[in-house]
Amino acid sequence: MEVPVTLKPSYSGCPVGCGEPVVNDSAVLKRGERFDIFIGGKAKGLKAELGQLFKSNLQAFEVYEVMEWVDWIL
């Protein structure tokens, strides 16, 4: 999908976020058999911040649907 700016999506299979995925534009964290999605993280600068929990406790098929929509709005 073409977007007007560079996006940094990320994924971690570690339930505590190894690799710091939540400082990216969008992040998917696997927690057991379920997934959480975070959006809005910023990795650098004076305004660095963690992404906010957007959706939680999703099944795998739901992640695809939500992330397609998230990448569109970011």
UniProtKB/TrEMBL annotation:
It comes from the Bacteria. Keywords: Iron, Iron-sulfur, Metal-binding. This is Uncharacterized protein. It comes from Heyndrickxia acidicola.
